[in-house]
Amino acid sequence: MRARSIHSTLTRHFLRRFLENDLISPDADRSQLLAVVGAMLFSLTLLITLFMSFVYVSARLTPSQLAISALNDRFFYISLSMVVCALLAVAQWDSLVVDVRDAAILEPLPVRPTVIRRAKLAAVAILGAGAAVLVNVMPTLTFPWLLVYHTQLRVVDMLRLIATHAVVAGAAAAFAYVAVIALRETLAALFTPRWLSVFSAAVQGGLIVVLGSCLLLIPPASTRIEQRGFSGSRALLPPTWFLGLHETLAGDILRDAPRPRLSARRARADVLASMAYDRHHNDFAAMARRAGTASALTVLIAVVSHWWNARRFPSVAPFRGRRQRWRAGGMLARMTIRDQTTRAGFFFTLATVWRSNVHRLALACAGAATVAVAVVTLSGIDLQNLSGSTAVPVSIFMIQPIFYGALLVAFRHGIRVPAELRANWAFQLAWRDRDRAFLAGSKRAALVGIVLPALLLVLPLFSYLLGTRAAIAHAALGLAGAVAMLEALLFWYEKVPFTCTYLPNESFKAFGILYLVVFLVGAAAFAGMQRDALHDPMAAFRLVAILVAIVVAFRIASARRAGRGPVDFNEAPVTTQRLGLHT
Amino acid sequence: MPELRARALTKHFSGVIAVRNVDFTVRSGEIVGYLGPNGSGKTTTLRLVAGLVEPSSGRVECDGRNVRDDLIAFRHELGYVPEEPYLYPFLSGREYLELIGRLREIPEGLLTKKIDGFLDLFGLAGAANQAIASYSKGMRQKIVISGALLHDPSVILFDEPESGLDVTTTLVLRHLIRLLADRGKAILYSSHILEVVERVCSRVIVLHKGAVVADDSVEHLQVLMSRSSLEGVFSELVIKEDPARIAGDLASVAALGA
Fold first, then answer.
1. Is B57 helix (H, G, I), strand (E, B) or coil?
2. Which of A228, A353, B16, B73 is the most buried (most CB within 10 A)?
3. Which residues contact B185 (CB under 8 A, 6 or more apart)?
4. What region, left, alpha or beta, does residue A140 occupy, with left being phi > 0 and alpha being psi -120 to 50 degrees?
5. Do B147 and A433 make contact, defined as CB atoms within 8 angstroms?
6. Of A320, A422, A428, which is closest to B127 when you measure between CB atoms?
7. Is residue A21 part of a domain?
8. Which of A325, A343, A347 sits opposite B129 (nearest CB)?
9. How many domains, chain A?
10. Is residue A33 one of the residues assigned to a domain?
């Protein structure tokens, strides 16, 4: 086979490998999946662009006002492009380079290592380019047109606006994508495989949380760009650099666009907007230079570290890292949990939520969402002028229940996903039909492994706002709330966590928005009760009584529902059963 | 003393028959070899006996009772070593055995002693706290065997247990199986290695295309079919084509274009 043919075969192989992960069924049609994801992205970005550009069609802004207003939207599109591409790279983390599995399969073949590496690079580049095109094509084609809907612009200028948007959004996407590759390759170059395997997954999880939070924070960050300026911390944001690049490349097309006859008031507003825009001319140039320098530096780091790591393939022999056993914690758990099946549920749940990639990802996504909510909430409040629980608004109290609540919802989703379906034979053979006891262990693990860390993470914030004693009382109330929420979430669960076949939840598609509203309203109500409880003992007693009543009611109802028959570990989806394909 | 019996056991998957009217009995203290070529239905039979797959017809009895009437009680007496050692890769070997032992409700102190013993004797003490993902196939197989014996079962199903094991452990396993049988366990042993079956098993069942074609002691089968070894008996029963000719054809295909 000719080298070019081998290269293209390997590139196709690596591209297919990007789609092979635990979230996609091995039986799924990859082409259909790609078509659906592509169509979703196209329609979503088109919808967002139309929604955001409505103001330009409905209101008649002067050219200078357009130039100012467009900064917000451009910041949005550039940020979106960067975050999506960076998230994609982080999701593929270990697959961005020739990994151990690639090496194990391809190294024995009579193919030169450089061909394998080039094919991998080509696949990674195609993946990144594809994602950048999918995210940016609709905004690039529609936003400039809608922006100048009421402005008489020459065709050449129009095309220049479109081309600039395409180039800058693409460059921003490439920068973010390559930055993740550079980070991974630098870590691989600096640390031995042993150390890399210790913290690589943690870095990946951390990046997912950070980028997920950034994704949710893009809309609030894409406002009043001109007023916030381009200095200080704003100047450190990569989207700001590429916004500067856009304005530098596009020149003053909008500001210098021909003006129709303006009323005196509009003419005055136009002049003011023009002056405001001109004030940032130097900033735009500086930001553009920074974008160029950062891009060049990132590419250089990626190339050098990749070249350094390319000296040899990763080791085929797996790293035999020891599982850290927290002896004191294990002993404490064994002392407090007397039942063996409950212990099994406790330790298996803890191991799964913290070590299984799919389950970690679900928790990381929930964590990212809550971090974003917390940042948005806190950014609008002057914390220094708040003292005492009565002065602290309910929106801040909501951070705690939303944080552990979102994590518990992710946990509730996660228990339906098997940790390793092919290994559930061992559960089936050892199972003694004590699903309630096992679930009790899982609940305790969720409290210890998810809720307690979440409460500890927000404790410093509430210590600062309420004082240490009140913050501890607040955390204790939060823990009680989490116990009640967990009972409610798991009341209808009738399987063995992390072991049974995954059955899609149809009701979530239909009622997802309703669930979200109920969750937010519940969090607000609980936060209000928590605030009252901190300065009124009667309110505290009332809240605790309500939570105890909820827990007791769910436990009694759960005990009455016991004896539902043996657990079906391999239950097939309803459609499969209906067609008689489940044997 | 347990007695395992399969009665007219049949299983078909979407119309394809995997196992057809299989009957056999495994008594206490007996090691029964279960032989057959690839795709003959050995693993399906063992999964049917373990209750992991529901039979299309027929039944499995333990001490005269249909095991599906009380599957949990039967599995309490059952140890099963599957063909493929699928385990939870993120658990360590010790954590996996602790999980299985706790699910079987073995008291914690006893469980710890048993796990330490198995890990030590199988030479896994040093790797006990490493993730199973880093284990070789042989190490996984040792964990699976330990898990199957953890609760001292009276009926044990081995599905090619020597797969991936080193020579020493294979020898240890053979002795172990004989000792278990001496202690009254009923053992069904499926394997491709005829020499092992010949040495270890007191009786042999030969399966071909899902149906039992022979069920007798090794010696009796040899006499009956005038063969000096189990390999000869097996060839006579299930191998319809000349292995030497097929090997020659394979070598020719490999050399195509050379």
1. strand
2. A353
3. B2, B28, B29, B153, B154, B155, B156
4. alpha
5. no
6. A320
7. no
8. A325
9. 2
10. no
Element (H, E) at A405: helix A399-414
- Look at residue B139 and tell me if it is in a domain: no
A430 neighbourhood in chain B, CB within 8 Å: 75, 100, 103-104
CATH number, domain containing residue B199: 3.40.50.300
- Write out chain B residues lying below 8 Å of A341, CB-based: 102-103, 105
Q: A380 with A245, same domain?
A: no
pTM: 0.78
Say yes or no for a CB contact (<8 Å) between A420 and B108.
no
Percent of chain A with pLDDT strictly greater than 70: 90
pLDDT tens digits for range A271-314: 888 888 888 888 889 999 999 999 999 999 999 998 888 877 77
Give the integer Cα–Cα distance in Å for B202 and B218: 7
- Spell out which chain A residues touch chain B, with contact meaning CB-CB distance below 8 angstroms: 318-323, 325, 334, 340-341, 343-344, 347-348, 351-352, 355-356, 419-420, 422-423, 425-433, 438, 566, 581, 583
Mean pLDDT of B73-77: 92
B34-51: pLDDT as tens digits: 988 888 899 999 999 999
B53 → chain A, closest CA residue: A583
- Co-location of A450 and A564 in the same domain: yes
Q: Residue B51, SS3?
A: coil
Helix (H) or strand (E) holding A475: helix A468-490
Contact call for residues A481 and A547 (beta carbons, < 8 A) = yes
Q: Classify each residue of A554-568 as buried b or exposed e, where b means 16 or more C-beta atoms within 10 Å of its C-beta.
A: beeebeeeeeeeebe
| pLDDT per residue as tens digits for the range A428-455 | 999 988 888 999 999 999 999 999 999 9
Q: What is the DSSP letter of A500?
A: S
- Cβ neighbors of A252 (< 8 A, separation 6 or more) are A67
Tell me the pLDDT tens digit for each residue of A148-173: 888 878 888 889 999 999 999 999 99
In angstroms, rounded to a whole number, what is the distance separating the alpha carbons of residues A74 and A11? 34
CA distance A354 to chain B (A): 9
- For residues A160 and A299, membership in a common domain is answered with yes
Residue B129 covered by a domain: no
Show residues of chain B in contact with A428, CB under 8 Å: 51-52, 75
> Nearest by CB to A323, which of B75, B101, B131?
B131
Q: Measured between alpha carbons, how far is residue A426 from residues A430, A491, A541, B75, B161 in Å?
A: 6, 25, 46, 11, 16
Contacting residues of A for B107, CB less than 8 Å apart:
340
Q: Cα separation of A392 and A298, whole Å?
A: 43
Higher-confidence position of A221 and B110? B110
Pairwise CB contact (< 8 Å): B72 & A431:
yes
Of B52, B131, B133, the CB nearest to A425: B52
Task: Residue A193: give the domain boundaries.
Answer: 3-16+40-259+269-309
Which parts of chain B are beta strand (E)? 4-13, 16-26, 31-35, 57-62, 65-66, 78-81, 155-159, 186-190, 203-208, 211-216
Two tokens, residue A248: 């530098």
Going by pLDDT thresholds of 50, 70 and 90, the confidence category of residue A30 is: low
Size of interface A-B (CB pairs under 8 A): 102
Single out the residue of B83, B86, B95, B78 nearest to residue B26, CA to CA: B78
Contact B88 A420 (CB under 8 A): yes
Contacts of A318 in chain B (CB under 8 A): 133-134
